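@channel anyone free to eyeball this complex?
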Amino acid sequence: MSEKKFSKKHEWVSLEGDIATVGITKHATEMLGDIVFVEVPDAGKSIEKEGQAAVVESTKAASDVYSPISGEVTEGNKTIVDDPGSVNGDPEGASWFFKLKIKDKGELESLMSKDEYDKFCKENPN
Amino acid sequence: MGVQKTALYDLHKSLGAKFVPFAGYEMPIQYKDGIVKEHISTRTHAGFFDVSHMGQFFLEGDETLIEALEKIIPSDLKSLKVNHSKYSFLLNDNGGIIDDLIVTKTNKGFCIILNAACKENDIKHISRFLGKNHKYLLNNDLSLIALQGPKSVEILEKLIPGVSELKFMTGNNFSYDSESLYITRSGYTGEDGFEISISNKKVKKLIDFLIKNKVKPIGLGARDTLRLEAGLCLYGHDLNEKINPVEANLKWAIAKKRKEVGGFNGWRKIKNLLTNGSEKIRVGIKPEGKVIARENTKIFSSNDEEIGFVTSGTFGPSVNGPVAMGYVKSKFSEIGTSLQLEVRGKKYGGKVSELPFYKKSYVK
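replying in thread with the prediction:
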């Protein structure tokens, strides 16, 4: 798998061939608090870069999850739908949200590296 | 006026609180543990809540004070014994709820606990009904701490002997650290517990004791999930000036005698609704599955008729699923009625549910 890239909306993406795996960052889960509901897209759904793709809810509020990259969904992670709390445990690993067959690898270039993202979070604490 | 802070602000900060602006105050929404853990530790052990932003409003006066207050509060204040408390409301001319409150009879008059966001307006409203011989004071020198959960009594008894003898919805004066303080056995979580009115000077010492006894600090986030599981209303969400106690399904909080005799704001309308029923009524709602129906979610009947809206909705950690309350047309209010909840454009099933969602017995 490729190195993770990060969006300003606190999603991460990693690439294996032309399949991208997308999830939300640890920083995002820390801001959200206890996650109690997750909705992921069904396979076959086309999503544009920065388009609304999934939903995550904490006890406090509902938030949209955007796709950092365009493509067609190949799989939504049903495990986190059944156990939303698991997203707090391993957000950047087992608790990915969905996988996409990507349209344009070039879109990854606009995303941040881990270091850039950490810096971005420090500068934008909320 | 700038943002206000309670006397415990620095302590909250040191405990890792995340703050939110609430009713003009910077208040902790959660601490390090997070809402779910805070909720569970209140239900299984004990938690403390800084509710000092709420108004502690003291009234003094003779018999005419009771008459004045009974015009806006539909409790039987004449029969209320000293140190006994009632849940009630301030009503406007139309029977609408200006605020919900706890009123306690004191030796000199009454103490009323008012919602933070409403307190200034409440006092203006109350003072219009008072006479020259009535004194009143919003005491900002006092903090208010709610200690809630099954271990509350055991823990507080160690520090302030005698509190275990209080029955639910009664209070008394106690002495602590050479100061007098007022404690009621009450709360808003569905758990046994106390509300402690203590000077801003001494409150930190009390909290230090509670923390030493493994009482966790609980923020507004868990306060909301706890009260919703307990089926209790949050003013500004489940209640407002356009909703009367019959619609709010709170007619139990109007004294029986006063339902018949009246003499309070909006009585004519309320009496009519008590006889004929209201068009809409507050109900508990249990969404099916995991979907959370939050405030303003539209409610439809099983035949797709729009019948109401959600006023509070969240995930209930003790119920381990979503819980909500809202207003529906009264003919759809029977327990078990199937509903549809429109969340993000999609309709999900749900049922009218009994309140509370989570039951616990108070000490009577």
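from a first look: The first strand of chain A starts at residue 5 and ends at 6.
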